[in-house]
Amino acid sequence: MKNSRILPIESFRPARPPDARPEGVRRFRSSGTTAGGDLRSAADFSAAGIAAYREGALAAFAAMLTQLGVGAEVPGISLIPPVTDWPESSLAQMVAWIAEERVVRYVESVPPDLATPVWVFGTAFHFVNSIDAGLGTKLPPGSLIIETGGTKGKSRSVERGALYEDLERVFGVPLERIVSEYGMCELASQAYDWGRLEERVFRFPTWVETGVATGPGVVEATGIGLLVVGDPKRIDVLGAAIRTEDMAEVFADGSFRLLGRARGAPLKGCSLLAEEIVAKRSTRIVAARPRTRSTGVSVRARVEGFFAAEAESLLAQELGSRDLARATVEDVRASLPTSDAAWSEAAARAVGSSAPQRWLFVLPRSHSIAGLHPIAMGVAAGLDVTVRQTPSIFLEAYLALFPEVARLDTAFRIASPADVERFDAILAFGSDETIAAIEAASGKPVVGFGERAGVALLSAAETQDPAVAVQLARDAFSLSQAGCVSTRLAVVIGESADAPALARNLGAATRALHGWPSLPLDVRLGMEIERARFERLGFELILPQEPGAPLVAVTRTPCREMLARRAYCLPLFLPQNASLSFMSTIGTLTASPQTLGAAKREGLSFRPLGAAHAISWNGAHEGRPLFS
Known about the structure:
Blueprint: E1 6-8, E2 26-29, E3 42-45, H1 47-67, E4 76-78, H2 90-101, E5 104-106, E6 119-123, H3 124-132, E7 144-148, H4 160-171, E8 178-182, E9 191-193, E10 209-215, E11 218-220, E12 223-230, E13 241-250, E14 256-261, E15 287-289, H5 299-308, H6 311-319, H7 322-335, H8 340-351, E16 358-362, H9 372-380, E17 384-388, H10 393-399, E18 406-408, E19 425-430, H11 432-442, E20 446-450, E21 453-459, H12 466-477, E22 487-493, H13 499-514, H14 521-537, E23 540-542, E24 551-555, E25 569-573, E26 587-591, H15 596-601, E27 607-608, E28 620-621, E29 624-625
Parallel strand pairs: 1-13, 4-5, 4-6, 6-7, 7-8, 16-17, 16-19, 17-18, 19-20, 21-22, 21-26, 22-25, 24-25, 26-27
Antiparallel strand pairs: 2-3, 8-9, 10-11, 10-12, 12-13, 13-14, 15-18, 23-24, 28-29
Helix pairs in contact: 3-4, 6-7, 6-10, 8-9, 12-13
């Protein structure tokens, strides 16, 4: 792209409520479907910026109508409220500008018995709500529908194809004359698409340049990635192109097809979100597979046999890498009790002095390893266990070892105590907020795990040691940073740390670990979003120099945002003082050979670097019995 500066759209999203609007500045806010309350995007426009915005919006709108054979004399109907009702909406302002040039009637629903063609402009949720309320009406031939935005949080969720079928059926407008508008408060120009659904592409006005971000700091003219928009009408960003969070395929002529939101999901360790298990309405899903009698084979023999035979190949299918699967299986095998007596002792520790008998396990979707230990210990302790399934071929095979365990379908949700009346307690992986939501919905005691992260401790001298980088890569990336003990921060103590050398060695070690020629696209896009966040925090960036290498960022100032939030990103913290006590509040600590003494002096609990995932199956989680 011609624009040398790329501005991530997250930079418009303040970390705290935005300051008061400066004099002479017009501020628009995003709709809030991806960020709530005061943390919605805030886009400021100067007087000159507003003038350019108005000029571009009117020109693009008129060009779209002309191409569809709709003359200036055709009146418009707006389901979008006036600016007085939506004062922070750039969409409402655009319609208001259109109303200065054309006849526009503001309504809450399309009026019946229209005699002449019209164009109707509304958001997707306006149209869905009108259809659901039975307020649709046939429009005169030659009419046009213009829809924008999604339905998330505003109405029932409807896929685009289904919505257009409903619009065609209810309003009598051919699908080819249903137009989609793409715009956002951060931009000043809009793109439109129309025609046969399978052939549609969005097009901005000719003055707009498009591209795609395909990785951290990488922007290309065509291809699939995060849509980048160079909009000269957006004069207040001083010539920068804006990198969105929308996945798109961009073609050589600058047109593009939207593919959804960025899929590089934020890291949350072993946590699941409340909406993954708590629902407003009961699902009443019965057990997908009831429990049967034990095989008579000891839990130890079943587990050891599984990890000696099929586990690696199944996990390789799930992780997409035989090397990652091998490292994970090695860690699990190192974690297992080594004798029948040790298994019995672990099972006794898991239940403590007393434990409920009938358990529901709600496992995370982030990876398949978290639930292995509690499932085995629950069976070994003779508990009545039911597992809410996750879509995992590996976990399915593991659960097949235990016919004593009943299973619920992955669609199961808890809306009221009646949904879980047959259980005495629930084990779940989630944040404090998620655990509280499950307790409130179920009325049952909940044992919660998961809101933790791994921290590695290195010495400055070890930043140049390739062997240390190999161990660090294993701790961070063997589960693609999805585990609750996966390293998401490395702390380097001592003088003269060589961060570039560590980044180079870590890149080589990571590529050897996963064995991929490059990281998957969704991972690279997540890395780009993380790169922008680190940049806003003032971190020094060390971008990947080879395909498949992680993104490294360096800071000398502690902050709450230090932990990596996206996969294959690793922040390095170089503290100005020697105190390491803050590390114990973050999560699992691994210490390199040269930092063992410092960790011991601080009284920190740690495991050796390279063994973050080799968590002992001793019937406890961070020293606490699993089931009491």
